[in-house]
Amino acid sequence: MADPKGFLNISRETPTRRPVDVRIQDWKEVYEPQEFAHLQKQASRCMDCGIPFCHQGCPLGNLIPEWNDLIWRGEKKEAVARLHATNNFPEFTGRLCPAPCETACVVGINGSPVTIKQVELRTIEEAFDYGDVQPLPPDRLSGKTVAVIGSGPAGLATAQQLTRAGHTVAVYERAEKVGGLLRYGIPEFKMEKSIVDRRITQMEGEGTRFRAGVNVGVDITGHQLRTKYDAIVLAVGSTNWRDINVPGRELKGIYQAMEFLPWGNKQGLGELAGEPPINTRGKHVVILGGGDTGADCLGTSIRQGAASVTQLEIMPRPTEERPSSQPWPTYPMLYRVSSAHEEGGERIYAVSTEEFLGDGQGNLRALQLVEMTMTNGKFEKVPGSEKEIPADFVFLAMGFVGPEKSELLAQLEVEFDDRGNIKRDSEFQTNIEGVFVAGDAGRGQSLIVWAIAEGRSVASSVDKFLVGETQLPSPIEPTARPLMV
């Protein structure tokens, strides 16, 4: 194990974020570099407890105590090998996962948990820095072909596992570049797109083929895919966004978060000739939704120079202590401050939008809100609490309700469950033989760590379908659900 007294003698410390007034002037990641010696001290806090509940908290089953111990000892190559044994893309999860492993950490029962997420991130970054992440092409090819539709984390994990198993894999992406929400939904200040590009380069070196700018179902039909490939994996995500039905919804200035965030990414990367089509500079912005996507809209608006940003949430403000109804090791709903929240804006809880108010010319000018209270599990309006707040733009960040009912899904004739997701069996296969589903398209909107775990599991099932057996790991079952919202 690491230092037997590490968790007693060393306090939890996370990396320092760059000063707010500096980082909002650019689109680079917000954290300052961390010295490796500091990382080792944090890794030494791992108790190597008899029953590592962090494994239970992580859908991937990451070998957390093992690579904590290896980092503390300075054995970097061995640490990244342990990390890659269960996680294809630790540089993604180390930046984007909310770390349910940390809320399940035994040290966290009556203290501050180990900085598992940061140890994971720095372990893989050290490996990239020293050239220890190289392509791992298969020794021989199986002669089988697989089409993966969608290049988000689930699709990429599926593709890498199947490519390494010797199958010829083509990943189709309808956007102009590969990466799915990793590229177009995650702001540059949370994960620079060079991080995605270098992993894609590794996958290309292994033999995975990428087909960007192809709208499957239109440019190539489902029947053509079935004829060309031995198996198909649908990793199209849960992109059917939740909307709001209140008076004034038709006013100009109301957009879905995913209509706004891609333009912010293009702006941050210098890919636009001029100003983005949705530009909040000098405008009053309101965000409906208190989650991570809402925070992404907040940070993007601040960098564009918004006059004000207000984030609204219908739920009451969470507590800063773990609620008794969400005991360890489950993931608790706590009041959390992201890097974007540090940068400005206001958060208002327990309110609901009654109406979007216009200026008489079809443009949004304000929102009418009402305070909400929860009684017997139901939301009720607080009489006399109505108020207006100014708004030139509103971004809807209220989550997603399943995959888009696209031409491809109709052509393949897949069935849907009662939640609107693509139905699948115990092997992640749809009602159509040879057509599998991975990630949010089958699970519903969830976390990146679940997407990668699903991709690995689906790859195992596809490998077994193609050759009759598999040595690929399957970390989860399709019916498993995260212990969190």
Radius of gyration based on Cα positions: 23 Å
Shape: globular
The helix fraction, in percent, is 25-40%
Label the CATH architecture of the largest domain: 3-Layer(bba) Sandwich
Major sheet: 5 strands, parallel
Total of domains: 3
Look at the helices and sheets and give the structural class: alpha/beta
- Here the CATH topology of the largest domain equals FAD/NAD(P)-binding domain
Unreliable segments of 5+ consecutive residues: 481-485
Number of strands: 14
Query: In which order are the strands of the major sheet placed?
Result: 3-2-1-4-14
What do we call the CATH homologous superfamily of the largest domain? FAD/NAD(P)-binding domain
For the record, give the distance between the C-alpha atoms at the N and C termini, rounded to a whole number. 33 Å
Kindly report the oligomeric state of this protein.
single chain
Total count of helical runs of at least 4 residues: 19
Classified by CATH, the class of the largest domain is Alpha Beta
Tell me the strand percentage band. Answer: 5-15%
Arithmetic mean pLDDT: 95
